[in-house]
Amino acid sequence: MVPWLAHDDPFPPVDRALSASSGAPGLLAASADLLPARLHDAYQQGIFPWYSDGQPVLWWSPDPRMVLKPAEFKLSDSLRKTLKRVARDPISEVRVDDDFAAVMRECADTPRLGQRGTWITSEIVEAYSTLHRAGQAHSIETWYEGQRVGGLYGVSFGRMFFGESMFAHKTDASKIALSALVGHLRRHKIEMIDCQQNTSHLASLGGREIPRREFVAHLKQAVREPQIPWRFDKSVLLDMLERHPPTPAP
After folding, report:
1. Per its UniProt record, what PANTHER family does this chain match (predicted)?
2. Domains along the chain?
3. Which one, of 151, 195, 154, 152, lies nearest residue 170 by Cα?
4. Which residues lie closer than 8 Å to 199 by C-beta, 6 or more apart?
5. What is the pLDDT of residues 138-192, one digit of tens each?
């Protein structure tokens, strides 16, 4: 039985989440509200909300947990060429927090293969925008010819980043934003990005699953660290290019 959380109830321990043999592996609890304070507490414990309109707020902590370690980011030769072009092209930009809520809405509105509707409801946008105003959530945006063409958003506590969603209206636009994020996090020696659940797209970029206990152990230490700065531009892409030289010709 998944517990129902009243207004002031704490989250149960994450090891009480439903197992892989259940119909909803990783489901931990449900509630009627998505208050910013509860959202803050959730991320501190490795818990995140995921639900659709008409459902209660569903809280999850899957095991295993999908993560992307910046040191393990895979930069293909084609993406490396794209980053090199973006780095030298004056009409290509990477912006941080230009319009956080707009990025969330773009993530919600962008069609995805095999997916109907979106979990990024107006309630979700408002709750995460509150975190953004507190300096705890950020958007990384790809711009081309003065137009936002891709980006991602996530939550940041201490030396931990929790990726939430991304979108692209131009080829590789979301990958450019992710590459910039990875470059920034590597500059500040961030060891892990939470990706929540496994997808083939994330796996192709170096994401992998780790046991929840390993994830939570890292999280508990990382969120206690001082917050990193969140102002950067596309110059971080040069770090990625330096760390990923071209594949030698056969």
Report:
1. LEUCYL/PHENYLALANYL-TRNA--PROTEIN TRANSFERASE (PTHR30098), LEUCYL_PHENYLALANYL-TRNA--PROTEIN TRANSFERASE (PTHR30098:SF2)
2. 4-62 (3.30.70.3550), 66-243 (3.40.630.70)
3. 151
4. 66, 207
5. 999 999 999 999 999 999 999 999 999 999 999 999 999 999 999 999 999 999 9
Q: Which helix (H) or strand (E) is 25 found in, with range?
A: none
Beta-bridge partners for 148? 143
Tokens for 3, please give them.
């517990």
Residue type (1 letter), 47? I
First to last CA, the chain: 58
For 27-76, the pLDDT digits (tens) are: 999 999 999 999 999 999 999 999 988 899 999 999 999 999 999 999 99
Instruction: Write out the two tokens for 192.
Output: 């892990």
* Residues in the chain, total: 250
CA-CA-CA-CA torsion for 198, 167, 46, 97, nearest 10 degrees?
160
Q: From start to end of 55-192, where are the E strands?
A: 57-60, 65-68, 92-96, 137-144, 147-157, 160-168
How far, in Å, CA of 233 to CA of 43, rounded?
Answer: 26
Question: What's this model's pTM, rounded to 2 decimal places?
Answer: 0.93
Given the structure tokens 């207004």, which residue do they identify? 7
Q: What is the DSSP string of 55-82?
A: SPEEEE--SSEEEE-GGG----HHHHHH
